[in-house]
User: What shape does this take?
Amino acid sequence: MRILVVEDESDLAEGIADGLRGDGYAVDIALDGATALDRLAHTPYDLVCLDVLLPDVRGDEVCRRLKAGGATAPSARVAPRVLMLTALDAVGSRIHGLDSGADDYLVKPFDFDELAARIRALLRRDGGRSGAVLSCGDLVLDTAGGEAWRDGRPLGLSRKEFALLRYFMTHPDRAIPAEELIDHVWDAHLDPFSQIVKVAVLGLRRKLAADGAPQPLVTVRGLGYLLRSTP
Assistant: This one.
């Protein structure tokens, strides 16, 4: 899952991003509203952590444009979830933020564990496909604990392999192009001409079939990679 952190305090933005990357998310940062709108117009994010008091364009205005459909990337299937972050704790401010389209609201200062829990809760709103515990065939993945198993066998995945498997498990039985994986599993620092997607998928496939079990993650020529729910 790919997250955009929009926060004008650079140290706080980097701290949030580092913590979320540690949880396996791909994270980009914008320090003002105009940059956020530009990133949102070109990248299909799954969730936005959005400060309200931003330079240039306020966060509630960014949220309003996003939810109105005028600020999302053409390749985005749905608008990303929005978690508002603000030092304003008055009831009226929270109501205004929610009325602008925010899905949840978190007042500063906040504990990172609460932020991470609220993000997991927001991602669960897609019908359970991104819930705390995912299952697909004999695969089980704990998004909160950062662990995955196949038929009870721990897979011992790297962070990027874990993020890949989570994305595949939220989109089972569908061929996913490498470009889509780049959009949702890697951040803006990835060289789009590198072979990193192939390398990461190969590593994941080896671990999935390490015990000789049928390979659930297959290549569909010309279309991408597909995780079969019934290998």
Summary: The chain has two domains: 2-123, 133-227. The domain at 2-123 is CATH 3.40.50.2300 (Rossmann fold). The two ends are 24 Å apart (CA to CA). Helices lie at 10-22, 33-42, 59-67, 91-99, 112-123, 159-169, 178-185, 196-208.
